[in-house]
Amino acid sequence: MTHPTLRALPRALALSLLVPAVVPALAQTGRTTDADALQPVVVVGTREIQPLKDSVADVVLIDAQTLRNGGFESVEDALRRQAGLQITRTGGPGQSSGYLLRGTTTSSTVVMIDGVRVGSATLGQAAFESMSLSDIDHIEVLRGPASGLYGADAVGGVIQIFTRKGRGPLNVTAHAAVGDYRSSESDIAITGAQAGFDYAASLSHDRSRGVSAVRPNDAFGNYNPDDDGFRRTVASARLGFTPVDGHRIGVSATQSRLNSQYDGAEYDADFNPDTTPDFRNHLVTRQVAADYRGVLNPIWTTSLQLARNTDELRSGGTTLSRYETDRNQFTWQNALRLSEGQQVVLGVERIAETVEGEVFTDAPKRTNNGYFAGYTGGFGPASLEASLRSDHNSAYGTHTTGGLGGSYALSSSLKLRALAGTSFRAPTFNDLYYPGFGVASIRPEQGRSVELGLNWASRDSSASATVYRNQVRNLIGYSLDTTGAICPAGYDMGCTANVSRALIKGVSLLGAHRLGDLHLQATVDFLDARDRLTGDRLPRRAAHQESVSLDYTPGVWSVGATLTDIGGRPDTVQSLGAYALLDLRASWRFLPQWRLETQLLNATDRDVQPVRDYQGLGRQIWVGLRYDMKGF
After folding, report:
1. What is the pLDDT of residue 573?
2. What is its main location (predicted)?
3. 8 Å CB contact between 602 and 563
């Protein structure tokens, strides 16, 4: 068990960062700041480029420098530390993972790569375990309902992942590292732009022996003492051509292959379990896209994208089951600048999904036509954002959602935000069509959310606080009914059903400060997610989660540490205890283009149980070498 003092440190340190930052801000009344002329920009909040500081929505940007220098073990780790997502994973790296954004289910968050919606339509989630940090340029996270712009499943928010894009002269980067548990990772990338062409390509390979994913004496008897490791290879490429200024044509492709072991059981005719087979997930994901973006005149910018996402899983021991999702997506989006600071976004999006596999012989093709409009306007110190979308789906009918938000600059550095919106989560193919479980008449979940936020920023410091409340009805879950009252006749093991309602409330705090060569950053999340019918907490949601990072970079040396605290959470019939993880890192730039790196993950060797009966890795040391042709 982690010492209580260690568990309390992240919250105390985070609050110590937030309080001195916010208090002086409240006293400011219009003083100017030394704002950097190059403000970071994001897309996810409005579907068009806008400065991050102008976003009315609660948007978190994880930039390229943070991804390269933050000492993250995975995409999930980066999201948890920076954006406050709660992560559930059935074991260590490479194992299946879930993500709970603002306390909603994994299926209630939209995940996109370069504008392409990705993930399994049977499970209703993206496979972060198949992604590598090496080919990612940056990540944008919109926290809060966004169905008014993105349609189904944006109840908790949207995660937009952007791969590398070519800019400037030719640049080559490479990285290789080895670690405990026979782990290794390597990647190489090339980017650049010349004569109207921009190009980027990357290739990475990661592997680890791991540990047994399941703990001894698990509830279902799936424990096998063998190690459950993984191998993952990811390739990505983007090519663009700009024949004249303001018009770009591009193509992109990403493929990931994941081979991960896990513990399971096969059963004979008498239902006796056999845990000895080598159970594996063979997952292949592909995204290909062609796009065009053109400035037709000073008022009208149009974007077109045609994309295909494939998610193919073969899973099992002596016998493999196959689940495949094919998703075709067409998006046409138009941004109209009515005047300075006034913009309207109009678009249409069509998605066609099919699934294949031994159990989905009768599942029909599902199509969704979405029509959306967004407005962004500035009125002196005030800003307004609005969205409205109508989705027409062949499986579950028509749903209209929207959002309305505004902000007001109390001073040059302090901004008050308020938003309200509606959202919905679509039933997955499993919910609708899985034999003996799915029910075709299941209704989508529907949410209503309000939030209030306060943002402050100066040249070297920033802080924000957001309070939110989200009511979700028609929660899709499992019903044990065998009487025919809820489940169809003949469903002897129960079925999927709209079983409950949920009330999700929370507070998110972020703070950052730079003192010369010292950079401090913290996130604090408090969450109260409950079933409104029973009053019970929703499973696997921690009541609080904190992360504090400190990095010191005096010249060619860099040292850093991150302390992450996860609160206790219910999981089926038992509660999982709180735990804290301490990660350490250091680097030495011994030449302008070369850097030696080392990390010590889980430095206190904490016994982590991310999900009931599963275990993560213990202490792990990494040593690696990184090269950047343009220099660090």
Report:
1. 80
2. membrane
3. no
Radius of gyration of the chain (CA): 24
Cα distances (angstroms) measured from residue 311 to each of 99, 222, 224, 308: 18, 26, 28, 10
Band the pLDDT of 22: cuts 50, 70, 90. Answer: very low
The amino acid occupying position 405 is G
- Please give the average per-residue pLDDT across 302-318, as a whole number: 96
* Tokens describing residue 563: 């302390």
- For 335, list phi and psi in degrees, rounded to 5: -110, 125
DSSP string, 155-218: TSEEEEEEE----SS-EEEEEEEEETTTEEEEEEEEEEEETTEEEEEEEEEEEEEEE-SBPTT-
The rounded Cα 591 to chain-centroid distance in angstroms is 35
Count of CB atoms situated within 10 Å of the CB of 397: 10
Number of alpha carbons in the 13 Å side-chain half-sphere of residue 76: 22
Parallel, antiparallel or unpaired: strands 247-261 and 280-295 = antiparallel
Q: How far is CA 495 from CA 391, 475, 521, in A?
A: 26, 14, 45
Full-model pTM? 0.93
